[in-house]
């Protein structure tokens, strides 16, 4: 029988939206249990229990699980995996870090970035920065390990009521890796990965100070703010705002790209957006080839004007 | 201390990848091949550690066809001391690659192994983590800063929420992100010098590794294409168009 174990992602206080999105993928495969690793924080298990489609919640609480260290979590997950045919995690930096470590312990290959479920052991996934989609199948003699491309799935509803079980998988936990700190940007703006609207700036914005006009437009639209790699590398904005192949993959209803040329590595992060708007002074910029609405001109006059006229 | 650096031969990141006529792979004939961009950063980091006097030997390793010698020569030209090619004509998936690197690690006993965070062909982002699991050693993935302090290292990792800092005991596996450093340019005399550096070739079959279960890949397709939309002339037109669509 197919049994899926989904590894929940959280920040110690709340479940990450990536968990609910991965839940939708897991439900398409089979009966799913959600595993929560934490130090106390029972409210995490309680909110995992509300995810529609969750059969059970396994809560592994111990001091070592306070922070998401792959080397500490992987042996515990591998232990729990003995009762499951599938182990899934979101394809976020959390899932990308921990799941391959689990797969190697299980002697199983991993399917990264599942976009769609074709059958119980067969999935579509992107390669070459999303320029090619392939179908991969996992052989029968091993556990299916996969990370879920969260932009491809809608969040599961939260009207469920799964049973919560405390578990303590018996595994040797290493002390060779120690968590020190997380330097997170505190922002009042919506979260980039779940925002309905995103305004992004690229190298064309020119400086950290100039990014204020991007923030201004974003605030008018209640949008999150993103950036191209060039803007991050130039130090205009922090790394967690990067969108693309090696940044975040997002799927907002509205994406406004300002001063971004549209390199394939960037575009792969926004292909699932509902409506794409491009503002660029170069009429030949590749971004216009996929934008629903394009406006050629100087961003320093267009963006403030747009902000003003949105009233 | 010895550092192992993994260097993969991939289609250059500037190439627009084309699917072959049979739909069972991508066209590589006559296509520019390069060192995976993340792996250049991995080589650079190892070289900087050696230049500071904290490492004495940098070994570049690759798994692939004999053509991968080219990418190993690039690593040697950048400054690596020697290279090992594990030769195979078959596709090597991350778990198999990790088993090969684990074998080399047992043989070479490095203090650090640097890999790219992902290969830009398969975009798997798995090999370093799998190697760390098999070796039962720490992993620091997506590193954007690396600081060696004797037997431990402090690594800053690029994570979705910002920057995560961890301490790891050596030996350890580190996978590198784009902002860790700026790889050096290779100069002509270095290319000449690299030709004389040792490059050992080992057949994959000689390593005595059990082939792990592998994914079967088929149906190579282009992604659904977005159509170019309309060009508007003014901000007012743009606002009207967005309102029309119901997104404002
Ligand atoms: C392995 C690898 C991974 C990568 N991953 C990513 C990734 O995840 N995300 C990512 O974004 N990139 C990534 N890149 C980089 C990518 O290839 C491009 O270099 C990058 O996206 C370019 O950013 P940009 O569009 O801001 O800058 P540019 O390409 O320099 O474009 C700037 C644009 O601004 C316009 N402009 C300038 N001034 C104005 C003005 N006053 N008004 C209006 N328009 C103006 C210009 O016409 C131009 O089109 C990656 C590259 C590699 C090799
Ligand atoms: N065949 C290979 N030869 C050399 N290095 C490899 C190979 N496969 C994977 N790697 C290394 O592992 C990293 C991650 O690859 P992947 O897990 O395939 O995304 C790459 O950046 C390389 O450093």
Q: Please, could you describe this protein's structure?
A:
The complex is a heterodimer of chains A (about 300) and B (about 250). The mean pLDDT of chain A is about 95. Chain A has helices at about 15-30, 40-50, 70-80, 95-105, 210-220, 230-235, 265, 300-310, and strands at about 5, 30-40, 55-60, 85-90, 110-115, 115-120, 120-125, 130-135, 145-150, 165, 175-185, 195-200, 225, 255-260, 275-280, 295. Chain A is elongated, with a radius of gyration of 21 Å. Chain A folds into two domains: about 5-165, HUPs (Rossmann fold); about 195-310, 3-Layer(aba) Sandwich (Rossmann fold), CATH 3.40.50. The longest helix of chain A is centred in the first third of the chain and has 14 residues, at about 95-105. In chain A, helix 1 links the parallel strand 1 and strand 2. In chain A, strands 5-9-4-1-2-3-10 form a seven-stranded parallel beta sheet, with helices on both faces. Chain A has a five-stranded parallel beta sheet with strand order 13-12-14-15-16. Chain A is of the alpha/beta class and about 300 residues long. With about 250 residues, chain B is of the alpha/beta class. Chain B has a single domain (about 1-215), classed as Rossmann fold (3-Layer(aba) Sandwich). In chain B, helix 2 crosses helix 5 (about 190-195) and helix 3 (about 95-110) crosses helix 4. The longest helix of chain B is centred in the N-terminal third of the chain and has 15 residues, at about 35-50. The radius of gyration of chain B is 21 Å and the shape is globular. The relative contact order of chain B is 0.18. The mean pLDDT of chain B is about 95. Classes of the chains: A alpha/beta (about 300), B alpha/beta (about 250). Strand 8 (about 130-135) of chain A pairs antiparallel with strand 12 (about 215-220) of chain B. Bound molecules: flavin-adenine dinucleotide and adenosine monophosphate. Flavin-adenine dinucleotide sits at the interface of chains A and B.
């Amino acid at each position: 029988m197919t049994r899926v174990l989904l590894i929940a992602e959280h920040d110690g206080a709340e479940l990450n939206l990536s968990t609910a999105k991965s839940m939708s993928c897991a439900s398409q495969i089979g009966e799913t249990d959600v595993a929560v690793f934490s130090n106390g924080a029972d409210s995490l298990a309680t909110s995992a229990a509300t995810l529609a489609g969750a059969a059970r919640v396994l809560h592994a609480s111990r001091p070592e699980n306070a922070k998401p260290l792959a080397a500490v979590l992987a042996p515990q997950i591998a232990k729990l995996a003995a009762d499951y045919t599938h182990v899934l995690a979101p394809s976020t930096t959390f899932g990308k870090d921990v799941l391959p470590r689990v797969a190697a312990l299980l002697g199983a290959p991993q399917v990264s970035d599942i976009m769609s479920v074709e059958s119980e052991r067969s999935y579509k996934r992107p390669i070459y920065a999303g320029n090619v989609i392939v179908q991969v199948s996992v052989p029968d003699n091993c556990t299916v390990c996969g990370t879920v491309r969260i932009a491809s799935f809608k969040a599961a509803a939260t009207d469920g009521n799964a049973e919560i079980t405390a578990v303590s998988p018996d595994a040797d936990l290493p002390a060779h890796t120690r968590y020190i700190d997380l330097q997170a940007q505190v922002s009042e703006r919506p979260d980039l990965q779940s925002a309905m609207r995103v305004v992004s700036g690229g190298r064309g914005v020119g400086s950290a100070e100039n990014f204020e006009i991007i923030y201004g437009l974003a605030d008018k639209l209640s949008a999150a703010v993103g950036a191209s790699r060039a803007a991050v590398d130039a130090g205009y904005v922090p790394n967690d705002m990067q969108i693309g192949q090696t940044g975040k993959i997002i799927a907002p209803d509205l994406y406004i790209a300002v001063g971004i040329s549209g390199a394939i590595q960037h575009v792969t992060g926004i292909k699932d957006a509902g409506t794409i708007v491009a503002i660029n002074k170069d009429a030949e910029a590749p971004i216009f080839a996929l934008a629903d609405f394009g406006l050629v001109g100087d961003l320093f006059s267009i963006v403030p004007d747009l902000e003003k006229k949105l009233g | 201390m010895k550092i192992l650096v993994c260097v993969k031969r991939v289609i250059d990141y500037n190439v627009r990848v084309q699917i072959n006529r049979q739909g069972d792979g991508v066209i590589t004939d006559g296509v520019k091949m390069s060192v995976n961009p993340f792996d250049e950063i991995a080589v650079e980091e190892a070289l900087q550690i050696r230049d500071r006097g904290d490492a004495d030997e940098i070994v570049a390793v690759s798994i692939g066809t004999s053509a991968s010698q080219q990418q190993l020569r690039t690593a040697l030209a950048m400054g690596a001391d020697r290279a090992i090619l594990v030769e195979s004509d078959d596709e090597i998936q991350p778990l198999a690659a990790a088993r090969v690197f684990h074998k080399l690690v047992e043989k070479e006993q490095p203090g650090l192994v640097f890999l790219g965070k992902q290969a830009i062909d398969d975009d798997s982002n798995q090999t370093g983590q799998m190697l760390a699991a098999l070796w039962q050693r720490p992993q620091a993935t997506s590193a954007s800063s690396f600081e060696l302090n004797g037997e431990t290292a402090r690594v800053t990792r690029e994570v979705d929420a910002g920057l995560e800092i961890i301490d790891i005991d050596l030996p350890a596996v580190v996978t590198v992100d784009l902002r860790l450093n700026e790889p050096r340019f290779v100069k002509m005399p270095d290319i000449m010098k690299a030709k004389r550096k040792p490059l050992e070739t080992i057949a994959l079959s000689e390593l005595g590794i059990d082939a792990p279960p592998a994914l079967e890949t088929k149906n190579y397709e282009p992604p659904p294409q977005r159509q170019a939309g309309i060009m508007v002339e003014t901000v007012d037109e743009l606002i009207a168009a967005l309102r029309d669509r119901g997104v404002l």
